[in-house]
Amino acid sequence: MLGTFISILSRDLTLALRRRTDVLTVLFFFLIVVSLFPLGVGSEQALLRELGPGVVWVAALLASMLALERLFAADYEDGTLEQMLLTPQPLGLLVLAKVLAHWLLTGLPLVLIAPLIAMQYHLQDGQMLIMMASLLLGTPTLGLIGAIGAALTLGLRGGGILLSLLILPLYIPILIYGEGAVTVSAIALADAEPYLMLLGALLLLALLLGPWAAAAALRISVE
Amino acid sequence: MNINWFKYASPAAFYPIAGRMIPWFAGIALALVLGSLLWGFFGTADQLGGTNPQKEYYRIIYIHVAGAWMSMWLYVVLAGWSAIGLVFNTRLSFMMAKAVAPTGAIFTFIALWTGAFWGRPSWGTYWDWDPRLTSELILFFLYIGYIALHSAIDDSRRADRAAALLAIVGLVMLPVIYWSINCPDPTQCAALHQRSAPGSIHASILWPMLGATLGFWSYSFAAVFARLRGIILLREKDNAWVAELLQGEPKP
C-alpha cells in the first residue's frame, strides 16, 4: 500500500517537473494578484498592513482553485484514471497521494514565497512567521476539499467556473481562521495560537474525510 | 400497521399520491401563514417591552425566522434524500432532493432579504457582515452550487449522484451556520437578538412565529411535490404509464 502511495507521488512529481510552467503559473498568479491590491487600493503603509493578511489568503484560495482544475484532468483524458480506479488498492489512498503531490507543487511554494509578500505589505517578522504557519496548515486543507470538487466536475464543460462555485463556499472557514491568525498576531503572537489550532483541526478533519469523499466522487464521474 | 414503504419509492406509485396531497398542503399553508401573519401584525404588542428600542419593525421576524429555519431544515432534507439515494440507489430519492433544492434556495433568499430589511432600521445599514446573515449567504451559495452542478451534467444518473455527494459534503457547513445564528455563549458574540431560545420569547410573539414556520413547512411540501411531479414526468417520459396518463386513459 505504501509502495503504491510512493509510486503515485513520485510519478506526479516527475510529470510536473517535466512541465514546469504549470507549477510556476500558479505561483506567479498568486504573486500578481497579491501585487495588484496595493496598486488598486493605494500604497499607504498602515492600509497595507491592515489589508495584507486578508489579501494573501484570498489570493491563496484563488491560486489553489486555479490549480485544482488540473488535478485529475490529465489522467482522465489519457485513461490513466480509469486504470487507477480498477486497481485493488484503496482509491482514497491514491487520491491522497495525488493531493499530496499537488500540494508539494502548488501549496508549498506559496508558503515559501510568503516572506516576500510580507515585505510587500510591511508586515512584522513575527506576523510573517504566523502567516507561513497558517498557510502551511491551511493550504493542504484547500487541496483536500478542492479534490472533491475537482473530482465532481471532471470532464464537464465550463468545469473550472463550476468548480469555483462549488468549492469557494466550503473554503470560507479556512479563509476566516487563516486571515484571523495573521491579523491578531499583529497585536501579540500568542493570540494566533487558537486560530492555528482550528486550522490544524480542519486539516485533520479534511485528511480523514476528504480523500474518501473525493474517491466516491471520482467513481461517480468516471463510471 | 404494515405499510410497504418501498412501494411508494417507485415514481409511478408516488406520482398520483403527490398530486392528491398538493391541494391539502397548499390549503394548510395558506391558512397558517395568513392567520399567523394577521395575528403577528395586528395582535401582538407594539414593543418588546423594557428598554428595547425595537418597535414595529420587529414584526419582520415572523417571515425572517420562519424563512431561516426552513432554509436550514430543507438543506438537511436535501442532504438526507441525497444520502438515501446514494445508499439505496432509489431514483425517487434523487428526484426528491432535486425538487427540494429550489425551495430551499428561495427560503434562504427570503431570510437574507428580510434580514437586510430588518438591519436597515436596526443597524442603519442593509448589510453588516454579521455572522448570521453571512452564514445564510454561505448556505445560499451551497444551494446554488447544488443546482448548478446538477444542471451542468447532462447524464441525469451522474448528475443525481454527483450533486448528492456535494450536498452531503456541504452538510459539514450546516453546524457552522446554525451556531453562528444560535450562539452558544452570548458574551462571545455581541449582537442584538443572539439568544433565540423559545422560552425567552413572549408567547404572543412565539406562537405566530411557530404558526408561520408550520405554514412555510406546508408550503414547502406543496411546492416540492408539484416540482417533483414535473421531474417524474420528465424523467419517465418514455414509460408506458406516463403515455397513458397524458392520453387521459384511466390507470389500472
UniProtKB/TrEMBL annotation, chain A:
Transmembrane segments: 21-42, 54-72, 93-117, 129-154, 161-189, 195-218
An MF annotation (GO) of this entry: heme transmembrane transporter activity
GO (cellular component) term, any one: plasma membrane
Record membrane topology: Multi-pass membrane protein
Localization (cell): Cell inner membrane
Keyword Transmembrane carried by entry: yes
Keywords: Cell inner membrane, Cell membrane, Cytochrome c-type biogenesis, Membrane, Transmembrane, Transmembrane helix, Transport
Taxonomy, superkingdom: Bacteria
A biological-process GO annotation: cytochrome complex assembly
Known role: Required for the export of heme to the periplasm for the biogenesis of c-type cytochromes.
Similarity section: Belongs to the CcmB/CycW/HelB family.
Name of the protein in question: Heme exporter protein B
Biological source species: Thiorhodovibrio frisius
UniProtKB/TrEMBL annotation, chain B:
One record GO biological process: cytochrome complex assembly
Entry's Gene Ontology cellular component terms: plasma membrane
Keywords linked to the UniProt accession: Cytochrome c-type biogenesis, Membrane, Transmembrane, Transmembrane helix
Protein name: Heme exporter protein C
Taxonomic classification: Bacteria, Pseudomonadati, Pseudomonadota, Gammaproteobacteria, Chromatiales
TM ranges: 21-41, 61-87, 99-117, 137-153, 162-181, 201-226
Family matches, as InterPro entries: Cyt_c_assembly, Cyt_c_biogenesis_CcmC, Cyt_c_biogenesis_CcsA/CcmC
A Pfam family assignment: Cytochrom_C_asm
